[in-house]
From TrEMBL, chain A:
GO biological process, one term: translation
HAMAP family the record matches: Ribosomal_uL23_A (MF_01369_A)
Name listed for the protein in its UniProt record: Ribosomal protein L23/L15e core domain-containing protein
Family statement drawn from the similarity comment of this UniProt entry: Belongs to the universal ribosomal protein uL23 family.
SUPFAM superfamilies (alphabetical): Ribosomal proteins S24e, L23 and L15e
Automatic annotation (TrEMBL), chain B:
Biological processes, Gene Ontology terms: maturation of LSU-rRNA from tricistronic rRNA transcript (SSU-rRNA, 5.8S rRNA, LSU-rRNA); translation
UniProt keyword annotation of Coiled coil present: yes
Record protein name field: Ribosomal L29 protein-domain-containing protein
Molecular function per GO: mRNA binding; structural constituent of ribosome
InterPro entries according to UniProt: Ribosomal_uL29 (IPR001854), Ribosomal_uL29_euk (IPR045059), Ribosomal_uL29_sf (IPR036049)
SUPFAM superfamilies: Ribosomal protein L29 (L29p)
Amino acid sequence: MAPKASPKSKAAAAKKAALKGVHGKSVRKVRTSTHFHLPKTLRLSRKPKYARKSVPHLPRMDQYRVVRNPLNSETAMKKIEEHNTLTFIVDVKANKHQIKDAVKRLYDVEALKVNTLIRPDGKKKAYVRLTADVDALDVANKIGLI
Amino acid sequence: MNVLLAAVKAYELRNKNKAELLKTLDEQKQELASLRVQKVAGGSASKLHQIGLARKNIARTLTVINQTQREQLRLFYQKKKYIPLDLRVKKTRAMRRALTPFERSLKTQKEQKKLNHFPLRKYAVKA
């Protein structure tokens, strides 16, 4: 680059650029590692033109679906009196978190822990141990179990 | 114990708005839950009969909820270009991918010329 670009040299540079194009000098990228890693590319977020499902479904596993009915067999009654636990037949697809939450919504009681098993007839039984400040017998009376 | 269950009528449900319908649904589910408890605790035969009614009431409420919801959505999407897939016409997969009546009616220039030059002629027999 001449410090003062005379009109003649400017014209000559313009002619060269027009003929040969401007990308003459190629520069090699400096690679500081021997490994080639995936380059970071543009990631666009979704902007759907329409919702695939018109309206999201109502919650399928609500508390009424999770807890089917309480049990009042002899062993269940024993558990109520001695261990402060209620026994429920529960939906097979319900997990312990859902059971705990459902019992809270339905009967307004906190569960200390939930143990589950699947009976031989295919139904799920849940032993719900209540916190010490609640009496399982009272709750059973309130539900209408006794 | 409880009042005997009455079959809820769908046309009465349609007058309610969405919040009321959801509340009604919740109440009906609670009814069903209490009936199930009574079944376990040795309910009378009439109580057990109510269980079937309660289930159908819940079904009716859900039907009304979903029907009115979809109807409103169809109105909303009427003028729009893209509509959700579950509101589109269902028919069959093949029929959805078939040529539209307009696409079927298209003719090549060659065919068009033939039709123009050699249209169907009408004859009459002189009596």
